[in-house]
Amino acid sequence: MTKEEMESTNWSQSVAGVCFKDGKVLLARHTYGGGKGKLIIPGGYVKCGEAPEEALRREYMEETGIAVKAGKLIGIRFSKKDWYAVFVAEYVEGEARSDGNENSEVVWMDPNEALKDATVPGLTKEMIRKALTGEGFGLTPYDTDKLENHLYV
Questions:
Q1: Global pTM?
Q2: Which of 105, 113, 126, 135 is catalytic?
Q3: With contact defined as beta carbons under 8 Å apart, do 109 and 39 qualify?
Q4: What structural domains and CATH numbers belong to the chain?
Q5: What is the pairing mode between strands 83-93 and 9-18?
Q6: pLDDT digit string (tens) for 33-61?
């Protein structure tokens, strides 16, 4: 990561997404930290000035080569220092490939197999389950140019 990328990243905000195509879920094998060797849902940090759904599109493209759009918000986790939001990542186009850096492989996996796989962490399994059952919240995009999106209108 370049110095510019480091400085433009909001290290307290991150996103991830559960993407399905042809009945399979997209997972990436993480290469570092506590998730090293684990198959997780793709995602990453939000850049300063970037909306979470924009970050999801960018992270998916960078890490997997897959174009997605943010669908339903299916999970959010807060702490005193940060937040992590998980969306259904609606498949748009692309061929899955590893970025050769943050992940060593990207695979389309049967969701039932993923839910049984020991290398898939609990949080990823929970988000897959929520995406499969339709749990979560609808995404209401925020457009500051439209008066009807103002908080008090």
A1: 0.86
A2: 105
A3: yes
A4: 3-149 (3.90.79.10)
A5: parallel
A6: 988 999 999 999 999 999 999 999 999 99
